[in-house]
Amino acid sequence: MNYKVRIVFEREPLHEMDVVEHFFEEPLKNVIAKVCNENNLHYWIESTGTIYILQNTDDLARLQKLNKLSLQASNAVKAKEIEAPKAKPKHFLVSINGRVIDQQTGESLPSATVKIRGTDLNVMTNADGYFTMFRVPSDTSVVEVSYTGYQTDYFRLSSEKLNSPLICGLYSSLNSLNEVTITGKKSGVMNTDSRQVGVLQLSPANLDKLPTMGDKDVLRAFQLMPGVSGTNESSSGAYVRGGTPDQNLVVLDGFTIYQVDHLYGFFSAFNASAIKDVQLYKGGFTAKYGGRLSSVTELNGKEGNKNETNIGTDLSLLSASGYLETPLSDKSTLLLAVRRSYQGPFYNKIFNQFNQTSTTQGGGPGGGGRGGFGGGGFANQITPSSYFYDFDAKYTYSISQKDKVSWTLYTGTDKTDNSRELGLPSFLSSGSSGINITDYTKYGNLGSSIKWFRQWNKKLYSNNYITYSSYFNDRNRSTSGFSQIDTNGISHTLSNGTLETNNLKDVSYKSEWEWTVSNKYKLLFGGFASYKKIDYEYTQNDTSKLINQHNNAMLAGFYTELAIDPNNKFHIQPGLRASYFGPTSKPYFEPRLSASYSLTDKFTIKGATGQFYQFENQVIREDILAGNRNFWVLSNNSNIPVGMSRHFILGTSYETDELLFSVEGYYKTLSGLTQYTVRQTQPAGGGFRMEANQNQTQTVTENFYEGTGRAKGVEFLVQKKWGVIPGGSAIPLPRPRINSQLLALIITPPTRMCAMNLNPSTCTITSAGILLPLSCSVPDILTLPPYPAIPLKPLTATASLTSTSAIKMPNVCRLITGWTCQCHMIC
Q: 0.85 cut: is pTM over it?
């Protein structure tokens, strides 16, 4: 008798398990229990008789949902069985166009592959899921549609289907014992396009298969690949092939995100529940993108489920999040996603690593040949308070089959409060309870865009955007509440401090067009214009503005590129981007070129080159122990140059159904690198003074320094697409070098940066592997955001350093294998 028992499991975690058992007249439940117990597995039997085999009990709800989708997909596949043509073909060398979507939600699927079976014809869908194909042999050809994480679909054309756009719906993949058999190449968690150079594609739906710390992170996942690393072990900010995080353009639905992380980099700024797909261009990117020197990260937000309402929540040790996606009508959808951190035990443990909490009593300040104060002492109590939140919203309205409008909103904010009260002995405070120290920081993004998509005909598509993006960073460091009686018996209250604000606003319009001339030629072109305004203020004692910068600029231009595929083996894509920047009153031309050639169906060689400009920079302040380390500035025609970079990339790849082996070498030159210092001259006899008259004149000098650099390296990647966790092994071999008028070095990623504020008399820097002599004097407390404060003794010492050893100088930030030393000259 055939009981038709359905057993559901995930193939990847169980793929390498071998179970050989013999049973005779044993109840099925006992058999399942014995096998699961011996292999550290769990099982669940539904009332319908379906049996779930689980590695983790938390996976049950997800497998139940996927099982439901699989049953629907099985029925759909049966309904779409490919049959022999019912009649002879009537039309030959026809053209087809259409859209690839998720069958369950109606979401468009970008970069899906559409092929004609038995021919070399294949195309990829654009960012909105649309495709066009010419010279299809006949109206009875078989179309094959595939996308990462979805079941491949096949269907036969007919003369009736040629009269309207094709809608190709795909179902999510699920491995079960009665699964649909799919032939073709397997896809990994993170995939590459063999015809493009340095491009990585990731779907947030696959993040469960990657190792992670904290929530699912769409940006940190790229750090598993060669050429990409973070500022620290948990950071979402990326150093790509020697470039700094501000040289990476991050775009969400057309608008720029300037702050890409929360909580010192431990969280990405993006909620995975609101993101549809992510693409990272590590270098040599096309003329469509500009304004950055190193790389581009493009994120496309979800449109929302068009068929049913979905509500979900996620609770971790660090944050709580929720999302809602629902159809509002047969033409419109809405997606909402919100996330907020909370200070649980794990959150506090992380936060305390970066903001040390201490209580010191007794003693008092000593030194200078004098003993400490007797009695009373100081009491330094710090109660840190920190949280972040972000919110995503997207509304989509389909005006017609050819027109669609969407509105996207993103906002995210971090708040950190390290304010504390410093208790003083009674003989100093004169009745005052002590000094109130305010240390408050708030930073974040606000961005929005309106997008109009139109399909003009089978060959021509366009996207028009109106975008707004802003970044803010405010910090208040002040003291108040201390009172002192002078010789005349008059009480004076001490109140001083600094207030820093950095605000950036970006309003833009851009138009992007795609014209598919034929299967061999595709023309991409468009234009853009933006207005940028950046303010930076540094105020002391609430009255004296030491720095007061207010700059704005207009940037406009156009781009064009031609994708040429003379045959199914060769692809070449020349392009040009031209910009006009208002503050310099100069045009900037950026030629681009990429090409690939498939020697066989498995072996491909490819290369790319291009010139890139950057008109806004996040400069690094020299005095990292005080104030914000980074702030944004606009290039001008005097002390802040326009950054420029040239990329040269050459690589090869070998890909089978189960393995991908890739090697890419790169060489990159950079100029116009900027660093910033503030020199604040104290009056004679400075120090901690308590006289009645403290009206002192301060002199502030701002210095911008220009530098040049270069980075080169070879990246090796071996990626398997089967086994317990599809993944890879990456070995980057960079050799960057910086020559700078600032006399500063940054050994750039893929190493990680450990910044130090040093006062060296010498700072000799060469490439990795060579001794780096440092002669340094350090302060009493070394604070290395986002690392904890390190207590130091004043010292002067000489250290020799290699890229794989520790600094020999005692009590100084260690240089762990693969980290970066940043050494600044202060002359």
A: no
